[in-house]
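Subject: sequence -> structure tokens, single chain

Hey, anyone have a minute? Need the predicted structure for the following. Not urgent.
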Amino acid sequence: MRRPYGARQRRGATAISVAITCRGVAKTFATRSGDVEALAPIELDVAAGEFVALIGPSGCGKTTLLRIVGGLEQATSGQCRIERASGTATIGFVFQQANLLPWMTIDENVALPLRLGGMARSGRLARAHALCATLGIGGFEKRWPRELSGGMQQRAAIARALAEEPALLLMDEPFGALDALTRTRLNMELERVWLTTGATVMLVTHSIAEAVMLADRIVTMSPRPGRIREIIQVPFARPRTLELEETAEFQAIAGRLRRMLMEQP
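Reply:
Had a minute. Here:
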């Protein structure tokens, strides 16, 4: 499988990553007041194992593009193709709300995809407990979702998304409802987990700092109908640290993104 844009195999990676190819992907929604063009034709390649962030003004089609990639929406025109070396590409989703089932314990929520896939109870709960430990919520496996903070619930949602070892992880503002400190901690946790899994990640975010801290490339989008304005390569080595935000190089990229997003196309 080709690896454009310098994508690399990471030490310890276990998942078989996928590559994403979008060609002329456009979306128009029919409403009572007429058609709404959400996405103009999009051309985008994402390399296997790459971490890509989508950023742009509200309503520019970021979430729509993410949902088309994940098969939750159908494009009006064009094609989005997911490629892997062999087999079926499992996709994990994380949304802004954790959406944990309140009548299930945390380990049961995390293990739900495995239960639906027919895995035996002992095996799926063992996997759930291992993921809870990895995401920093070990010891809370038997708690109810209501007993956990918002940040801990979101950790559980990420663990659930990783349960089937997805080749592709799609994240739609997963930390948007959290306080700044919790969000920063989960950014660092997400990078650590990603570096060990080998998954391909697409992240929708409104946070410029989050995009620069996490992504290999940042796709900036214009106001509706969403178009790709520019794709910015993030050159920083991994793993990244909080001190990176204080560097002139980080601030230069963040400033460039800020100016771009404030400008009208």
